[in-house]
Structure formats: structure tokens, C-alpha cells
Amino acid sequence: MRASLGAALIIAAALGSAPALAKDGEGRVSAGITAGTLGIGPELGYRLSENIGLRANATFFSFGHDIHSDDIRYDADLKLRSGGAMIDVYPFGGGFRISGGLRVNGNKARGTGRPNDGASYTIGGTTYSAAEIGMLHAETDINKVAPALTLGYGGGLSKGVTFGIEAGALFQGSVKVKPLTVTGVCADSSIGPCAALAADLEAERQSVNDDIDDYKVYPVLQLTLGYRF
């Protein structure tokens, strides 16, 4: 809520002060590439005045990461997929800016769980053989729209090569794990030793959710190289 309010205040400031920009040698439009914790992708900007600017970008990246929960190791495939728009307020009319906006957040993680000892899983307090479980599949769910607030430097108004940097936060909310699935014998829960698996999988899901519950704010650190026209 506080993040959304902050973004709204920046938008209100932008709507309230935007004198024309028309001096020779000054550029309104910028285009470039941004890279950082949100991923890598194109960015476009439009400087309404010395004090107000607009930006939009889309960022993408993929990488692998191991996540450990109890005695299970999840080989996670993390995909960064997001895009959004920011309103930049330049309080001193130079390069320093305060920015707020919204991003469509398609970031997600898919993981394949395997027992650390290679022989058995302990899920929800019950021990299952590797043959009964096979591979344990998990996938995250996250809010699709998230507010963002950043501080940064976007360069002045002169035409030519520009360099930008910003740091802040994407307020994405809690990351949640969808219901877990298995590929082994117990994929058919009607088989005798597998009857309790559904409840145990839910307990394991809650355990993973507890492990990642603190990741409600995603850090933003982006570098941008572009050209102002």
C-alpha cells in the first residue's frame, strides 16, 4: 500500500508540472539497453521537461539456482520476464531522479526436487523411496502487477550518448508455490503406501512457502546505456 501511494504521489507531481522543452541541443527522446537485477532489454524514454520524464522498458533473463528445503534439493530454473513504465521526477532539473511506476511481473521459478541422499524423501514427516516419488515438481506463483520505486541518475538533456543508473525496489508481494506434483509410483495416490502423500505434499509446500516468505520485495539495480535524440 505504501509503495502504491508513493508511486501515485510521483504521478501526481508529474501531472502538475511539465513546462515545454524546446531548447536547441536538448533531446526529448532516448533509446537504449538496460541491464541488471530485472534482466536485460530495451528501454525508451521521453523527457517532458527539465523536471519530468517518462520511461518504459521490458526485461528478460534466465538462470539456474539450487534451493534447499529440509532434505530435498530443488534445481530451480528462474525466468525473469517483466515490463513496465516509470514516471521520473528530476527535482533539481539535472540528472538525479526519483521514479515510480508499475510493472507487469511475469517472473517465475520452476523446480525439480531430488533427495539429498539420492535414496529417499522425507515429505511432511513421512519417508518415501526415490522410486515412489520419482521427481518432485514445483512452480511459483506471484502477483502479476507490482509497484516500483527507485532513485537514480539519468543524465542531462544534451543530445548524444547517455548513461543511467537506478536502485530501488519492486514490491511484488509474497512468492507462493503452487501444489507439488510427483512422477514416481505415487503419482497414483490410490496405491497403498501413497495414500497419505497428498497431505504430505501440502505440508512440504507450506514448508517451502515458509522458506521464501521473506522475499516480498525484489531489489532493483539497473544500468542503462543509450542515446538521446
TrEMBL record:
Signal sequence residues: 1-22
Keywords noted in UniProt: Signal
Protein name per UniProt: Outer membrane protein beta-barrel domain-containing protein
